[in-house]
Amino acid sequence: MFKKLTTVSLAVAALACGGQAMAANYVGGNILASKYDEDRGGSADLVSLYGRLGTEFSENFSGELRLGTGIDDDNIGRTKIEQDLFYGAYVRGGIPLGDVFFPYAVLGVTHTKIKYSGPFNSYTNSGSDVSFGLGTDVHLNANTDLNIEYMSYYDKNDVSIDGFAVGVTYRF
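Structure for Outer membrane protein beta-barrel domain-containing protein, as requested:
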């Protein structure tokens, strides 16, 4: 299912851009401060790093892949919560504001893997969900952007994960 949604998302973005030439490819890295919330009342503050690889279909649309892992965990009671791994495919659409700002909306699919460690056992749970958010790129020079973004990555099975990320993007 993840592969089908990824393919459909990227195809829709490519069709929406018509025959416009590809502007650039890019790579980036972000640090993510996320909130893991359980519907039954517990929450944990997690920190992750992720890399981004994308291509601009036009000045308004891009598609990207992300891969990340947790670097800081938290506890809910006596259970340690860790962001073990996450990856996804996303389409970004926005409107450039002058030469400096590119505010955008992002939509895609994220697969996440969370590790739980208690005093007597540990286990891992994983799942995929539709992800969405808002962000902006601030152009620092011709090839480098500061990226700021808020995303809802996962909201399923009584668990939600959302967060704020800051990073740098390099266009080539």
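Strands lie at 25-38, 43-56, 61-72, 74-76, 79-94, 101-117, 122-139, 144-156, 159-171.
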